[in-house]
UniProtKB/TrEMBL annotation:
This is NWD2 C-terminal beta-propeller domain-containing protein. Pfam families: Beta-prop_NWD2_C, WD40. It comes from the Eukaryota. It comes from Iphiclides podalirius (scarce swallowtail). InterPro entries: Beta-prop_NWD2_C, NACHT-WD_repeat, Quinoprotein_ADH-like_sf, WD40/YVTN_repeat-like_dom_sf, WD40_rpt.
Length: 605
């Protein structure tokens, strides 16, 4: 429906059946109704509402122009436009009038079509001939006249067809609506937004001359901004951004930033090489962190793989992944699978003994288990051969898996679970043999609501049980409670002296881990609402990283004096933060599929 006022309006009717694209146009002018006009696929009117441009049901999807005959209250066919005889079968998805009613812009399944009714678009032959030397002036004039005639017929009735690349097609987003495109200020280029990309054609040659990676989500709308000297196009996307592009700069050198198609779920960095491994749902990515290049995107199954975990060894030689119910070991140099074995429902992958062994913890909820309990299986294997060393089971709750930890001396695996009377406990296993050593009730730590557990780096037998507002430290050898640490979130320095307090409501403090007293307030507590927060120490403990999902900023503080060193606003939601290059850099994985490596530039250093 489109209204000028209550006496003048247009109604476009449709059956509502997606396989049926016939339309009926009802038009009311000064309170009197015209005879309905039948058309199909797409329809548009000129500025004065005196002409209708639509796909003619009698001519397939070719466009006809109908003029308003007020005396007889009907629409009369004025002319028939062509856009190539062969294209009658190509569905017409959208029609729009260009600025000042000069052009008609059509979107079809595989292309875009422009009709220029003023016929001012320069044609290739025309320009070339004008540039030739003046020797045969008279002949040239005759030839130019001919080309003018051809060009006139060419453009007023024969549209300029701008083809999309072979695998790309336009889709109908709503009846009579599809992907929009626009013509630049001087009628040189046409720009369209399809999927995530901007496509640029030359109207003179009809060739596709540029494809720009515009957004990381589908482009929803594209509008021209060509007023006065402005020669811009505005795009909005499902990635929640609006971008304004200057068409005059469209041929500047493009520096493409590598990214994966889907959001990155997690990130793992090699210690000895400048390599990173990222996980997206369909594959895992191998990156060179010194150049920012995505070296490879790999999955064992070429189609339909579901990758949930990927961990790179410290040496950077192998990657262990969990993919589609299998544990897979990859050789990085060859980019080949060297081992694969079925293990369904993998929840965690942990490396042991400098990457020479690894354990996978998988969980399966079965109907036999009552009270929402499940059994988890720990399987230890060698790297890179994948030989099974042992496999051991423990019970846990079926919902909300809590990650297991390996003690600082790598002698024990500590996994949260439940005991025989289904009370929360910690299962302690010998890391070399898999022998079960203890079940320690959580209540020994004095924490009722366990959120996570953490191995303390300076005391191999100590494990921190992190609750909502405090943490309790347990000794896994004596099974005794050591002490409470108020407000601690589980992150601490390698000497076990300093921890972090970062409530989801805002604020960040360095706390002393003996008594939980504040050493330094890094961010003051302003009530900003509850957001997800990622915070940690760098690998050398020199810096504290703090990412806030509401502000989308990563802030870096010096541990020594609590001074802010840097603040970086990420272009998309960050999903993972890691310390890189021996604590001199920070790696960010984000929802737009990008891996960003930032060097920490500290004036203090």
């Amino acid at each position: 429906m489109e209204f000028r006022d209550l006496e003048n309006f247009v109604l476009v009717m449709w059956s509502g059946d997606l396989d049926e694209d016939r339309l009926l146009v009802h038009f009311c002018k000064n309170g009197s109704w015209m005879q309905p006009l039948r058309c199909r696929g797409a329809v548009t009117l000129d500025k004065n509402w005196s002409k209708v441009y639509c796909s003619d049901p009698e001519r397939g999807y070719q466009i006809s122009v109908f003029g308003l005959n007020e005396e007889e209250s009907r629409w009369d066919k004025l002319e028939e436009l062509q856009h190539r005889e062969t294209d009658t079968a190509e569905a017409m998805l959208q029609l729009k009038r260009g600025k000042k009613d000069r052009m008609l812009l059509a979107t079809t399944t595989y292309s875009f079509v422009v009709w220029d009714f003023y016929n001012l678009i320069p044609r290739g032959n025309h320009i070339k001939e004008m540039k030739k030397c003046k020797e045969d002036a008279e002949k040239k004039d005759e030839e130019e006249e001919k080309t003018d005639v051809v060009s006139e017929k060419d453009l007023r009735q024969q549209g300029i067809v701008l083809k999309l690349p072979h695998t790309i097609r336009n889709i109908s987003t709503k009846m009579t609506q599809s992907n929009s495109f626009m013509v630049s200020n001087n009628n040189t280029y046409a720009v369209a937004g399809v999927r995530k990309n901007l496509y640029v054609w030359s109207l003179e040659t009809t060739k596709l001359i540029k494809i720009l990676d515009a957004h990381f989500g589908r482009i929803v709308q594209l509008e021209p901004l060509t007023i006065g000297a402005w020669n811009n196009v505005i795009t909005s996307s499902i990635d929640r951004t609006v971008k304004i592009w200057n068409i005059d700069n469209i041929f500047e050198q493009v520096h493409k930033i590598d990214r994966q198609e889907l959001p990155i779920d997690s990130i793992s960095l090699a210690r000895d090489k400048q390599l990173a491994v990222t996980v997206t749902r369909s594959c895992w990515g191998l990156w060179d962190t010194s150049t920012g290049r995505l070296l490879a995107q790999l999955a064992d199954a070429p189609l339909g793989a579901i990758v949930t975990h990927a961990v790179v060894t410290p040496t950077g030689d192998n990657v262990v992944t969990a993919e589609s119910g299998n544990v897979v070991i990859w050789d990085i140099a060859e980019q080949q699978v060297v081992f694969k074995e079925e293990q369904k429902g993998v929840k965690q992958v942990l490396l042991l003994e400098d990457g020479s062994k690894f354990i996978t913890i998988s969980m399966q909820v079965t109907t036999e288990h009552i009270d929402n309990l499940a059994v988890a299986i720990i399987v230890a294997r060698t790297l890179p051969d994948g030989e099974k060393i042992y496999s051991v089971e423990f019970e846990l709750r079926g919902t909300g898996y809590k990650a297991a930890v390996i003690s600082a001396d790598e002698h024990h695996i500590v996994a949260p679970g439940v005991d025989k009377s289904s009370r929360d406990c910690l299962h302690v296993f010998h890391a070399r043999t898999g022998a079960r050593l203890h079940r320690i009730p959580i209540k020994n730590s004095g924490i009722k609501d366990m959120q996570s557990i953490v191995a303390l780096p300076h005391k191999p037998h100590w494990v921190g049980v992190v609750g909502n507002d405090k943490a309790g430290i347990l000794d896994i050898k004596t099974k005794r409670h050591v002490r409470f640490v108020p407000r601690w979130n589980g992150a601490c320095t390698r000497d076990g002296k300093i921890g972090l307090c970062a409530p989801s409501r805002g604020g960040l403090d360095l706390i002393e881990l003996k008594r939980g007293t504040s050493l330094q307030q890094l961010i003051s507590r302003a009530a900003e609402g509850v957001f997800s927060i990622i915070t940690m120490f760098s690998s050398t403990d020199q810096y504290v990283f703090y990412y806030h999902s509401g502000r989308k900023t990563l802030r870096v503080f010096r541990t020594v004096d609590g001074r802010a060193v840097a603040e970086y606003r990420a272009p998309a939601e960050v999903t993972g933060v890691a310390s890189a290059h021996g604590g001199k850099a920070v790696a960010l994985a984000s929802q737009d599929g990008c891996l960003t490596i930032l060097n920490i530039v500290d004036p203090h250093e």
